[in-house]
Amino acid sequence: MKGALMYQQLTDPLGSIWLSALLAFLPIFCFLICLLVFKLKGYQAGFITVIIASVVAFYAYGMPFSLIGASFVQGFAQGMWPIAWIIIAAIFLYKLSVKSGSFEVIKESVMTITPDHRIQVILIGFCFGSFLEGAIGFGGPVAITAALLVGLGLKPLHAAGLCLIANTAPVAFGAVGIPIIAMSNLVGVEQYEISAMVGRMLVPLSLSVPFFIVFLMDGVKGVKETFPAVLVAALSFTITQFISSNYLGAELPDIVSAVVSLACTTIFLKFWSPKNIFRLDDLTDFSHHTQLEFGKVFKAWLPFILLIVCIIVWTQPWFKAFFDKGAVFDYTKVALSFNNIEGSIVDSAGKALSLNMDINLIALQAGTAILVAALLTIFFLRIKSNIVEEALGDTLKEMAMPCITIGLVVAFAFIAKNSGMSTTLGTAFATTGDAFSFFSPVIGWIGVFLTGSDTSANLLFGPLQQAAATSLAVPEALFLAANSVGGVVGKMISPQSIAIACAAVGLVGKESDLFKFTLKYSVGFIILIGIWTCIIAFLMPGIIPEVIAK
């Protein structure tokens, strides 16, 4: 129901798009200063950023305070559900594995494949993390893989930072292709064209990320010593991602690529190992790591096997059908409604933005799938109630402040989106003419930094990218794909991702340290992606697929 209060988003409140863009950038700038200069904790920086964004939205954009408040509630709720819910469930599952003793066997099983930390990061952070990204997305992969690597002996900051970087290659196809599918539905372009272009643009990134991770850990020497294994992992992943994105669509590239890469690398390591074993801890004696019985290894990995099974079930159409309107489990859906002001915000084109939010307690919620995996783990491993209680208590205690941080960060993103600040930033870049080929992925990068989600960035800036492509006579698929590809390297510096990673490895309050670790690499990657987009636009237009409108 549309209320009497109406607000139409402003794109250029100051009458100069670049001055307006500077103003819209002010909350982001303050967030960076809070983290990097004043070294405030994540929730403190998030709170200050929300206040500044609200002031800008109210005084400069003229957004009514009631709509700012509704945007805050909408964003904070989105931060809690599904994002924080996924993290809580993932950490609970991990805690169960640790406290039940299973994780010690997992560490031993990984050590029997290779005790080398460089290759362990590739296997878990890159390969297994890519599978999780393709299956659940929304921060869960970084939380799970970073926690696993800390358990294997990596320092928390290294584990979190390396997993954030490893998580770049699969983000565009995360959560069963939702970022691309959502943008496809929004802009009216077939997802296969966008998926194919994303797959083609990602080739250099997917191929280089595993080598870059090893380089960060052990320099050129490390790359030379592990080159064969890393090459197998990188090539098998990249080739599979390219083929599946071009011929299967957006849903499966991450999952298929991760499985192929993990299998190929593990098999290769049966016949090859690095001459020197690299560790970031003090472990030097590997003689006691003998081959474990299959049953013992299977039991130890059962929590994560159940996780995979549950995620697969949760993504099946037949399962989702149980929760459709009028179906047997329809009652598990609730709604966050602002009926008196719903429809009060319209964009510059006059399209109403919804303030209401549907909350599916079971269907479409990766967090619930992870929780079910945890409950099944308790049952099959016969974990005692006191261990379950301890694991749950530790999880809730450790996740309290990170969840608040996530809620505040997403609340800021919704205020920026609903007020028009995000559109102002994108529109400013769209005025750069031919140089927009460079800035196209930068817009996606900014979008993911703001929202923490490639899906949200694609929904936020997809129409702008499409309009810019039309005005510059560039095939739409290039800029639409560039938005998503630029976004993947923004994920490692997104405040939401930083908060999740810190929470997973016990670095709550140290968000500024992790942000400084990833920032320079994210900036470097986005510059290279911008150059790569220009090369495609001006020198290699033949690789851009023809766009077919829906």
Automatic annotation (TrEMBL):
It is found in: Cell membrane. The chain crosses the membrane at residues 16-38, 45-73, 79-98, 119-152, 158-182, 194-217, 229-248, 255-273, 300-319, 361-383, 399-416, 428-450, 492-509, 521-544. The keyword Membrane applies. GO terms for cellular component: plasma membrane. GO terms for molecular function: lactate transmembrane transporter activity; solute:proton symporter activity. It comes from the Bacteria. It is a multi-pass membrane protein. InterPro entries: Lactate_perm. Keywords: Cell membrane, Membrane, Transmembrane, Transmembrane helix, Transport. PANTHER family: GLYCOLATE PERMEASE GLCA-RELATED, L-LACTATE PERMEASE. Uptake of L-lactate across the membrane. Can also transport D-lactate and glycolate. Belongs to the lactate permease family. This is L-lactate permease.
